[in-house]
Amino acid sequence: MRAIDAGLLICHECHQLNRHEPELKRQYCSRCGGQVHARRPNSLVRTWALLLTAAILYIPANMLPIMTVNALGQGQSDTIMSGVVTLVGHGMLPIAAVVFIASIVVPTFKLVGIALLLYSVQRHQPMSARQRVLMYRFIEWIGRWSMLDIFVIAILVAVVKFGSLASIEPGMGAAAFASVVILTMLAALTFDPRLIWDNTDDDHE
Questions:
Q1: Top-confidence residue, 159 or 117
Q2: In sequence order, what DSSP letters do the residues of 157-205 get, joined into one string?
Q3: Are 36 and 29 contacting, i.e. CB atoms less than 8 angstroms apart?
Q4: What whole-number distance in Å separates Cα of residue 181 and Cα of residue 66?
Q5: CA-CA distance, 189 to 205, in Å (whole number)?
Q6: pTM (predicted TM-score)
Q7: pLDDT band of 47, cuts 50, 70, 90
Q8: Burial 138-157 (b: 16+ CB within 10 A, else e)
Q9: Per-residue pLDDT for 5 more than 50?
């Protein structure tokens, strides 16, 4: 049984359970005063908007240089993929694997995973509620690791400062990639997981 079927609403601010009062146009949490909803207003629309924006920015994030290494007056720009290839060429396979997974695999999985989750909820696809919940929780958990590349670049930019001898500068690709990570994290937050249970009667457990 869903909480709404039992006449209960949960506050997204403090997670207090509140008795649903249908006669009220707006209902507020009895503990913190935050507005409570049976379902977040326009949750799917907002999540789709954030996801599509992230998907568009994912293209320049992979096409534009993510950082430029200047050494002895010569600069070399690298995209995410060319950086992975360079690391492999220097025999740094473990580091290359970490960068590839954190910067290519994880963002791609998040984009595809959220899109599948939204599509399955909207179209009532034969995907069990358990599968949807596991996917949603995994997307939320894995999201933080997408920022690994940005953290590495930030550290390198701050540490590698040797005047004209050597320096590292972030590229436009880094800004686009950071935007993708933030937008996908926001997309996961704006999605209302309670929608997963709204069509469980049609699901195959």
A1: 117
A2: HHH-B-TTSEEEEE-HHHHHHHHHHHHHHHHHHHS-GGGGGGGGGGS--
A3: yes
A4: 14
A5: 25
A6: 0.73
A7: very high
A8: ebeebbebbbbbbebbeebe
A9: yes
Whether the pLDDT of residue 80 is over 70: the answer is yes
Distance CA 22, CA 160 (A): 61
The C-alpha atoms of residue 110 and residue 101 are separated, in whole angstroms, by: 12
Residue-wise burial string across 36-52, b where 16 or more C-beta atoms lie within 10 A, e elsewhere = bebebeebbebbbebbe
8 Å CB contact between 144 and 189: no
> With bands split at pLDDT 50, 70 and 90, how would you rate the model's confidence at 205?
very low
Nearest to 54 by CA among 141, 146, 122: 146
Question: Using an 8 Å Cβ cutoff, are 165 and 63 in contact?
Answer: no
* Amino acid occupying residue 56: I
How far apart (Å, rounded) are the C-alpha atoms in residues 92 and 85?
A: 10
Q: Is the pLDDT of residue 119 over 80?
A: yes
Residue 142 predicted with pLDDT over 50: yes
